[in-house]
Amino acid sequence: MDIAIVGGGAIGLLTGAHLGRDHTVHMYVRREEQVEQLKQEGISCSSVEGAVPVHSHLVTEGFLSHDLVIIAVKQDQVPSVLQEIRNTNSSVLFLQNGMAHLELIPDYLNALIGVVDHGALKIDDRTVEHLGKGTIQVAPFKKGATGQSLVDELYQEDFPVLYRKDYQKLMVAKLVVNTVINPLTALFEVRNKQINDNPSIQRLAYTLCEEVCSVFSLPHEEEWERVRLVAERTGENESSMFKDIKAGRKTEIDAISGYVLRKSNRDVPYHQFVVDAIHAKERRGS
């Protein structure tokens, strides 16, 4: 299959390295330096043997024809990417945290929604460390649409891509985890395990989980146990929001916790607090 991956961050490089073993992969990135390095040296990934050769392009130069376009950029970059691919007939797979991007997907796109359950750290423009192996789960965005044959082609034994029918269920499940773990680890600048190990952080996490479950009518205790298990399994990892704060980058707080605020018809004060607090930290770091 001929695959375009938009975004040269951790998830883009991780996906490109694994899929590039079996498919023709084109990486679309924003800097000429990364284009040249990927073109000359390929992608180096800690869980893949040897360098994986890929084609590389500037995203602003326009898109070639591909069987699949994977959008692996952050939420705030999705609108500009959609503008670049507005004439595509390809299937488009979105791999974002949060759910705000769902409101931006145009009707004409054959869109697939993905949830990534891998830990990855970008080392440099061509190198990614695979910190935690998981899955990518993919579901069609439109009712009645399918994409199972395409998703099945992506499946690899050591990099499972799995087809699901209900994208809403997938995304809300990921949102619960993200809206609890990401802002708290970023605010207190700690690894994921502190959600369980620090009693004060745990109480805040429990209440954030309670709030998001009330908004989406989910069973709180069941979801809280799932959050705790994720925090335990990824205990040594730093959340993406924590990494953004450390690097002085804009976070995805508005697409995660802010999305919960926008969807709620009741007060969710702990979510309001973490949104305001993360924005305060962003301003301090800018």
TrEMBL record:
The keyword NADP applies. SUPFAM superfamilies: 6-phosphogluconate dehydrogenase C-terminal domain-like (SSF48179), NAD(P)-binding Rossmann-fold domains (SSF51735). Residues 167-282 form the Ketopantoate reductase C-terminal domain. GO terms for biological process: pantothenate biosynthetic process. It catalyses: (R)-pantoate + NADP(+) = 2-dehydropantoate + NADPH + H(+). One of its GO terms (molecular function) is 2-dehydropantoate 2-reductase activity. GO terms for cellular component: cytoplasm. InterPro entries: 6-PGluconate_DH-like_C_sf, 6PGD_dom2, ApbA, Ketopantoate_reductase, KPA_reductase, KPR_N, NAD(P)-bd_dom_sf. Pathway: Cofactor biosynthesis; (R)-pantothenate biosynthesis; (R)-pantoate from 3-methyl-2-oxobutanoate: step 2/2. Catalyzes the NADPH-dependent reduction of ketopantoate into pantoic acid. Belongs to the ketopantoate reductase family. This is 2-dehydropantoate 2-reductase. It comes from Halobacillus salinus. The lineage of its organism: Bacteria, Bacillati, Bacillota, Bacilli, Bacillales.
